[in-house]
Amino acid sequence: MSNDKKIVLSGIRATGNLHLGNYYGALSKFVRMQDDFDCRFFIADLHALTTHPDPKALHENVKHILAEYLAAGLDPEKNILYVQSDVPEISEMYLLMNMHAGIGELMRTASFKDKARKALGISAGPAAGEEEIEKEIIGNQSGKSVNAGLLTYPTLMAVDILIHKADFVPVGKDQEQHLELTRRFGRRFNSFYGTEYFHDPVNFNFGGQPVKVPGLDGSGKMGKSEGNCIYLIDDEKTLRKKVMRAVTDAGPTEPGSTPTEPIANLFTLMELVSEPSTVDFFKKAYADCSIRYGDMKKQLAEDILKVTLPIRERVLEIREDDDYLSRVVRRGAEQARDIAADTLRDVREIMGIRKF
Ligand code: TRP
Fold it and tell me: 11 CB under 6 A from ligand 1?
């Protein structure tokens, strides 16, 4: 890890097993970046607390994601791999950074509005229900509440990134707004204290567009809460069954027609996992109306398994090796803490916190 390499930082929230959306949106990019950049990847267990996971499940989730990182090919010799809560400097800087985060801008964040709406039982209105959310939160008529950790989620994420002074943050499209807030907090800190301490981190997509991985239910993206996921850890039988049950339509009736959303989604998945010639074959079959969805799904399942099965096998192996896992995170925590402590020392100094 030489000093002239650009710094990369990213993480995944520890809320359950990783699915194909996490893999193509984040993890596969991490793996591709590890040779060319100074990479730090972590497991966001503090962020997971915002949605109150079962304390018994949290550690298992962290362990599982760590095993998935390693199984997908992240090399602890090339990257710093760590667990967020192992780096207490992050929590301290989060407190400091909250002094410069506005309640209004945090409340207007899409992810906050989503989660707040769910917690308060407000349905998504055309104006995104902003006023209703605010009224409910301040008025507290319903007895339902939104925890402050959810509000300050973006502050914590900004600190994850700024504490490393990261250049690139490989994340999916849904995280762009958080990244924008990170830049804003960094710039605000700079201008408030008259320094040039932080610079702007940006997303990274290998020159392409951020991918949006669709689910199997015919509409929308793959997501844990949507119940439309293919997990890296799915066994062969489960995975085949899920793919064979994916939503389709009655089939094309006119040559050259545009696929409906469920079919377009299957093609999108196929483009991620299959050979271009395979995708071509089924696109032609769709165009001349000879396509059989059953055949297409069988092929799709086959090609997904080629990606996921080797990872699954390694995950099952690595998960059993507690010694190895703890060695990896202990070393990662040390490396991450060294970096984080330097930034925190500077930030405290800039803000006027001095030792006697
Ligand atoms: N918010 C991200 C997600 O839900 C996870 C995350 C937390 C993150 N801190 C980060 C991603 C810092 C990149 C950089 O996926």
Answer: yes
Nearest to 184 by CA among 87, 270, 106, 290: 106
Is ligand 1 within 6 A of the CB of residue 12?
A: yes
Q: Under DSSP, is residue 82 helix (H, G, I), strand (E, B) or coil?
A: strand
Q: Which domains does the chain have, with CATH numbers?
A: 7-101+152-211+322-351 (3.40.50.620), 236-317 (1.10.240.10)
Which string of DSSP letters, residue by residue, matches 39-51? EEEEEEHHHHGGG
One digit per residue, pLDDT tens: the chain, 356 residues? 456 899 999 999 999 899 999 999 899 999 999 999 999 999 999 999 999 999 999 999 999 999 999 999 999 999 999 999 999 999 999 999 999 999 999 999 999 999 999 889 888 765 557 788 888 888 877 788 899 999 999 999 999 999 999 999 999 888 999 999 999 999 999 999 999 999 999 999 888 877 789 999 998 889 887 779 999 999 999 999 999 999 999 999 999 999 999 999 999 999 999 999 999 999 999 999 999 999 999 999 999 999 999 999 999 999 999 999 999 999 999 999 999 999 999 999 999 999 89
9 contacts 34 by C-beta, under 8 angstroms: no
Cα(10) to ligand 1 centroid in Å equals: 6
> Per-residue b/e over 226-250, b at no fewer than 16 CB within 10 Å?
eebbbbbbbeeeebbebbeebbbee
d(CA 233, CA 132): 40
Do 293 and 248 contact (CB within 8 A), yes or no?
yes
Between the CA of 14 and the centroid of ligand 1 the distance, in Å, is 10
Distance CA 242, CA 88 (A): 41
What is the Å distance from ligand 1's center to 93 Cα?
A: 16
Looking from the CA of 201 toward its CB, the CA atoms found within 13 Å total 32
Q: Does 299 contact ligand 1 (Cβ within 6 A)?
A: no
